[in-house]
TrEMBL record:
Chain positions covered by the region annotation Disordered: 1-25, 61-90, 109-128
Gene3D superfamilies associated with the record: 3.10.450.50
Coiled-coil ranges per UniProt: none
Comp. bias intervals (Basic and acidic residues): 16-25, 70-83
Signal peptide: none
SUPFAM superfamilies according to UniProt: NTF2-like
Name the record gives this protein: Nuclear transport factor 2 family protein
InterPro entries membership: NTF2-like_dom_sf
Amino acid sequence: MSGSDEPAGRYPASGNERDPAGRRAMADGLWTDDAGCADPIVAAEGRDAIDDVVATARRQFPGPGCRPAGKADGHHDVAHPAREPAPAGGPAVIAGLAVMVTGRARPRRVHGFPDPVLTDTIAPGAGS
């Protein structure tokens, strides 16, 4: 694996952790100090804000979280973490592309580009 596809493979696991303290410990070991993520619904700057976004998603989608959707791929500090949020045995609740910019072999920025949101799976008020 290159320096960017390894963290792309670890990235989904941190969001799947159900225990808040365990998830935060994983995030602290995974993300860079200046981490951030953004998609059309949410933007988060820093590990605290990222942890808040993940905690909200865990409440909204309490199933197993993200599952592999192919092989994570990366080069030159940019990666595609191949994953999809989905309940166990069910269809993906969001499809699209995520692009991860890494630094020191850790995620620094993740930019999400979802395909049209599957509105029947989104809880009322999501994205508000």
